[in-house]
Amino acid sequence: MELLTNLYQGFQICLSPINLLYCFVGVLLGTLIGVLPGIGPGAAIALLLPTTFRVSPVSAIIMLAGIYYGAMYGGSTTSILVNIPGEAASVVTCIDGYQMARQGRAGPALGIAAFGSFIAGTLSVVGLMILAVPLSNIALQFGFPEYFAIMCLGLSIVSYLGRGSIFKSLLMAALGVSLSFVGMDVVVGKPRFDFGLLVLGDGVGLIPLLMGLFGIAEVFSNIEEKTQAREIFQTKIKGLLPTVRDWKDSLGAITRGSLLGFFLGILPGGGAVVSSFVSYAVEKKISKHPEKFGTGVIEGVAGPESANNAATGGAFIPLFVLGIPSNVAMALLLGALMIHGLQPGPLLLQQHPEIFWGTVASMYIGNGMLLVLNLPLIGLWVKLLKVPYKILFPMILLFCLIGAYSENNNASDMVVMLFFGFVGYLLRKYGYDLAPLVLAFVLGRQMEQAFRQSLILSDGSFLVFFTRPISAVAMALATFLLVSALIPAFKKKREKIEVEEI
Amino acid sequence: MNRRKWIVGIVSLFTLGPLAAQAWGAESFPTKPFELVVPYVAGGSTDVMCRTIVARATPFLNNQPCVVVNKVGGGTVVGSRYVLDGRNDGYTLYSTSTSSMMIAPVVNKTNFTWKDFIGICQTMLGSDALYVRTDAPFKTLGQFVEYAKQNPGKIKYSTSGAGGSPHLSVEGLAAAKGISLKQIPTKGDAEAVTALLGGHVLAASGNPIAYQPHVDAGKLRCLAQFGAERDKAFLPNVATYKEQGVDVVVDLWRWVVVPKGVAPEKIKFLRAAFLKIFQDKETTLALEKIQCPVSYLPGEDYEKIMMKSEAAIMPLIKAAGL
User: Fold this and answer.
1) Taking all residues of chain A, what is their mean pLDDT, rounded to a whole number?
2) Of B58, B88, B37, which is closest to residue B267 (Cα–Cα)?
């Protein structure tokens, strides 16, 4: 009952015209930012933070939160249309989303991404509302060994990501992990593997890496395959909305993606990114036709897109209940709370319930707004595919350059991006998938850090990963996943050799 | 003849024109907007402080706005290099701190130090502090040290990063008392406080902004602060290291500076302007609201403060083996 009265109060706050306006501005900006490659919600929230100095704290948080989950909504658009992820959490959407677009099914792909995001977003707000307090305490149970084990589990998923040889996927994962080692060594506090270059002092930036591997490399390889590329535009666009069949295929994926995203979102660091990858792997694992993944199956879009949206709801839990931000965007929201004289922390919920409930209510409304905003846009986006490449490519290049520069205002980041553009072009040409590289890059650094922290904690004993229940289970699961994926690959190879010998 | 006159005219216009403009410009500084460089990402505590300061600064800067520019990377070194790269026309200001001026140059072996800058004013003076859980087997710094002596190597503490001031401050304590404490560095205060709240470490060292809310909620206890004097904004009731007989001082200051080579009359103008900015009631109120321990000091004190800070920190950096 208390829940309902609280929610009622939340809606009262949120439904005032001014807050509705701020909510709308937030989700609109979020959608735009999500669509533009390279410009993430973090940068946008940082830029808009000063404009909220003079409005009431609830309005400010409503708008900034809208930017955050709105960006997750828009992030899938460029993945599907031009194979360039708007942000890291949409990398995995490229795999099947872009293939769908090539078959003229960009509309259903965008549609299921929008509906999936709406359903997942709403489910995660329900979760946030009911489970915030108990779950925040569970999050505290996760120490360094647990994080390491979870990261291992995440990394073992690479074996499900690749379209081709599993060994190529593992090779790419190794490259991703190696790249994550560049930069500041957290335990020693000194830069390493940076070749004395200042731009690598804080590591390879995720945005320049993503924009290079996907955006720039996409442009390079399309210039090369000019004649083949033409064929995409001539494919007839079949329908703008998902069919009944599409819905049937994706409903399970959306539900599983929502649950995964919500729970992984609570954990600090890259919850949205990891959950999108995990969701894709889960769908492939339980699918009746796993071999079709990578050729444009709708579950491969519905699952990850739901997961990364649900993760945004989960990410608010540690922020509101403990005052601990789980990612950069949440850290900025924490800053916004402080600017308005609110002390984020365990007492926030008791002292200022209106902030929490107002935001929760605004997220219900914001999700609805996003759906209404995004569905009509699908028609427009699909038309974008008809823009000739000679106009589209320079635009993509321009946005990638802006994105890489604007994160740190550092021109060297553009050089890093171009370098990875070239690397990405070569890797694609020789049939290496880039998704495992990105996953490994995102997880690598956190994994190494958790590994070393755990060993300091245990005075050097490796048993620490197996004696604690949560980490033991995760480690066992990771081993199982990796082995079960590797055995068939080995078998196939052996069979092949035997055949050749005969 | 006519043509020669023209040439002379044009040439003199090109050569004398800028000179005249320069001479005229010197009298009326400033004539264009300022930039205040912040070597951290937007939204962090330094960034928010700087944005709050510049928000109402325009009237005091001859109606020229001051814009915050984030130059991020290399653990603040990118920002410092950017400012030192010939930007000494007086329009580029820089927000420095204990970590960017004392620690980063040593760790990154840079070719610049605080001596390459000229102080405009001090903006903030705060302190990190040492925290434990309320259910820990020690309630005071004395008991903490005693516990560490009886259980060597058992106390592990989390920090916001190796080589940061919270790390140096605790290593200073360990060296002074002859105890062994093991640091578990994390990626920031948020992660460090989580580890302490979850009971994965026995202590944590970091900025009160992240920890104090949990003290208010009854989960954590603050054992000591590291500054020379008590931080009146955050920790008025917590004793400093010095008060508790530990001869270690790590002050967290922030200064607004310009690179060397800025003309003296421009420095005079800027120092006067920042005095007025900090006398402005609204600005100081806004700074208090964002929980910034405001502490203005005039630019003339720059060398004195820097030398004091350097003398206190360099031995700690050596002791920590950085």
Assistant:
1) 86
2) B88
Chain A residues with CB under 8 Å of B71 CB are 408-410
Closest CA–CA distance from residue A456 to any residue of chain B (Å): 7
List, for residues A301-349, the tens digit of each pLDDT value: 999 999 999 998 888 988 888 888 877 788 888 878 877 878 788 888 8
ipTM of model: 0.85
C-beta atoms of A186 and B185 within 8 A: yes
Region B148-174: mean pLDDT is 93
Cross-strand partners of B256? B95, B121
Lowest mean per-residue pLDDT among A330-339, B271-280, B298-307: A330-339
Q: Is the Cβ–Cβ distance between B299 and B88 less than 8 Å? A: no
Instruction: Give A191's contacts in chain B (Cβ within 8 Å).
Output: 74-75, 108
How far apart (Å, rounded) are the C-alpha atoms in residues A155 and A167?
14
* C-beta neighbour count of B14 within 10 angstroms: 9
Contacts of A289 (CB under 8 A, 6+ apart): A297
Describe the strand order of the beta sheet including B156-159 as a list of residue ranges. B182-185, B156-159, B203-206, B129-133, B220-225
For residue A186, give both structure tokens. Answer: 């957290």
Tokens at A68, concatenated: 């955050």
Gap between the terminal Cα atoms of chain A? 75
Q: Give the CA count within 13 Å in the CB-facing half-sphere of A59.
A: 15
Q: How many CB atoms lie within 10 A of CB A191?
A: 22
Strand B117-126's sheet: what is its strand order? B66-70, B34-38, B92-97, B252-259, B117-126, B294-298
Assess A202–B contact: CB distance below 8 Å, yes or no. yes
For residue A182, give its domain range. 2-501
Torsion angle in degrees (nearest 10) through CA of B106, B111, B116, B121: -30
Task: For residues A310 and A28, give the distance between their C-alpha atoms in angstroms, rounded to a whole number.
Answer: 19
Largest Cα–Cα distance in chain B? Answer: 99
Element at B123 (helix H, strand E): strand B117-126
Rounded CA separation B320/B312 (Å): 14
Residue A236 CB neighbour total at 10 angstroms: 6
Q: Report the number of distinct structural domains present in chain A.
A: 1
Q: How far is B231 from chain A (nearest CA, A)?
A: 18
* Of B120, B126, B128, nearest in space to B297 by CA: B120
Domain boundaries, given as residue ranges, for chain B: 32-125+252-319, 129-244
Phi and psi (nearest 5°) for A444? -50, -50
Q: Where is pLDDT greater, at B242 or A1?
A: B242
CATH class of B32-125+252-319: alpha beta
Q: A241 at the B interface (CB within 8 A)?
A: no
Closest by Cα among A103, A32, A93 to A380: A32
Q: Distance between CA A163 and CA A295 in Å, rounded?
A: 9
Binned at pLDDT 50, 70 and 90, residue A226 comes out as: low
And the tokens for A8?
Answer: 């009622």
> In the CATH hierarchy, which fold is given to the domain comprising B129-244?
D-Maltodextrin-Binding Protein; domain 2 (3.40.190)
Higher pLDDT, A300 or A327: A300
Q: Report the amino acid identity of residue B72.
A: V
pLDDT at residue A330, as a whole number: 86
Specify the pLDDT at position B8: 59
CA distance B108 to B116: 16
Amino acid at A118: F
Q: What is the CA radius of gyration of chain A?
A: 22
Q: Is A325 on the interface with B (CB under 8 A)?
A: yes
Q: Which of B36, B40, B47, B48 to mutate to test the interface with A (most CBs of A within 10 A)?
A: B48
- Within 10 A of B111 (CB to CB), how many other CB atoms are there? 8
Interface check A239 vs B, CB under 8 A: no
> pTM here?
0.85
Q: In chain A, which residues have their Cβ closer than 8 Å to the Cβ of B156? A: 456-457
